[in-house]
User: What shape does this take?
Amino acid sequence: RNTFVVLDHKTGMVIAIRQGSPLVAGHSKKGIFLASDTLPLLKNVDHIVYVDDDQLVEVRGTDLSIYSAKSGKKLKVKKHKLSQKIEKIDRDGFPHFMIKEIFEQQHTVLEAASYSEGEFTDLIKKIKKSKKVYTIGAGTAAFAAGQIARFLRNVGIDAQELRSYESENYLPLISKKDLVIAVSQSGETADTLEVIEVLKNKEVEIASIVNMIGSTLTRSSDYPFFSRSGPEICVASTKAYTSQIVWGYVLSKTIDGKFNEAQKVIAKLSKDLKKYFADKKHQTVLKKLAKKLVKQDHVFVLGKNQHFYTALEGALKIKEITYKHFEGFSAGELKHGVIALIEKGTPVIGVVGGTKQEQNDVLSSLIEVKARKAKVIGIADKTNEFFDIHLYSPDGGELDAVAKVVPFQLLSYYLAIELKNDPDKPRNLAKSVTVK
Ligand code: G6P
Assistant: This one.
């Protein structure tokens, strides 16, 4: 599974052949560009040509031809005009794309919800007649898939989240009576695409929530949806993650006949995020904490139910760009091993949100670690006597998973800055993981 690009030095002709890994061609007056996805081409091209597997691209000067690699037959070249919105990529005055993308969430949560009720009709029909719904993704998208499955279960749908790289065991159980919802920012993640290919061969229908228009995953989907958060340049995903969650929430509420109620929750969340970002004191607290954490080697993050995934995603964000060992756990796991790691001064972050019961579960775990002299950091809308440090985050209601992940995103950014890392381009990681 590879994609090759070959340059003939004598003639200047370029030949590319796609087999498994993604390939797109961009077209403009400046010439023809080849890349694995549209993102790096956005500044230089105005039209995109999507290349499928087993297709061969021939570039002679400004002429582009596509052939079937199997039959040798010349194929029609379909050019797709890039939308105005996606063309504009700059930092908008922010020092890095990451911080710009974090702040953008006050708007992108609304964009992700900007589907009409009718646009969900076909997908909902399919969900209702499916035996089981599986949601699947990799990395951050796997955690969003977890949140989406949880929303679906909340409205009575038998839904199960899978991680692309740990789904082999489930594949024999998935049939065309089921539906698979694939979650991905890029729509090009090899681990996810490989699973989708196997399922499509079994005639399983695929829905997807993807951020990049024209991606391989979108083109393989029977029910393609976009998270509409605009280009996400920073390798670590922030706004795409929260948009995927919002989309899953609107979908589940629409199944439940509560589309309008969902819109109100999202409008409030957007307003609360706006207020949160405008109030510099929250950022001051996070910057101060980042300075303290520079010297720490291990930090534990505890959450429960929707915030189990917040804990995993929060810890992943920090690992990705600070290279520090943050580990997310379910609060319930504390007594089953994690507590053995707690020493005097060990920082433990608790995500306190959701139902009263969920909050109490996390609080009682925090009390346990505090008794062992851990440094307790609480992410919550209200402070608590057990917190050594309180990181405020608004109450996001049913979308608290969005509200509570934001302090982690900001903390990871400020910590990366303290450590003099480039938050946009973390070491060893790629935005689109197109090979396994
Ligand atoms: C890589 C990135 C992660 C991302 C994952 C899935 O591992 O480093 O940040 O979450 O790919 O990417 P996707 O494009 O499928 O959302």
Residues 308 and 343 are 23 Å apart (CA to CA). The pocket of 6-O-phosphono-alpha-D-glucopyranose is lined by residues 138-141, 184-186, 189, 192, 235-237, 429, 432-433 (CB under 6 Å). The longest helix spans residues 259-278.
